[in-house]
Amino acid sequence: MHCSLSVGSYTVGDVAGEIEYVVGDATTPKGSGPRIIAHVCNDAGGWGKGFVVAVSRRWPEPEAAFRSWFRERAANDFALGAVQLVPVTGDFYVANIIGQHGYRPSPGDPPVRYDAIETALGTLGEEALRLGASVHMPRIGCGLAGGRWELIEPLIKQELVQRGVAVTVYDLA
Description:
Layout: E1 10-14, E2 17-23, E3 35-42, H1 51-58, H2 61-71, E4 83-89, E5 92-100, H3 114-131, E6 134-137, H4 149-159, E7 167-171
Parallel strand pairs: 2-7, 3-5, 3-6, 6-7
Antiparallel strand pairs: 1-2, 4-5
């Protein structure tokens, strides 16, 4: 299954909680309290297609922070598996996750890097618990990165849900 559209709101049960799936816009996360909007970025410094367009339309800070992080990568942690948590407004944060190698797939090899997403989600889980935040996202890694949701969903359950982090996944109508 590639990232298919869901209709309605439903949950997938899990031992320590559940992922809630809703139809809506992940840049306007539901609920209250601290909220982190997570998305996958590439390791080539590109920003301008896919979900990042919606992020930039809403807040300038995540793009500016990502571009600076990439530009200064020789002196920081910018690499596959890294997370940059950017405060945007009030209790909202955007998590720039480096989980895609480049942005052009080679035959049979999409840019998604599942191990990098798993590592980044582990870090994100720690930050979400520290902030008391819920995590909101589109089907990360499944758009331009070319990933498969049935491989990404278990990583979200393992690194976020099973640690007690509330997760909502958004599909556009």
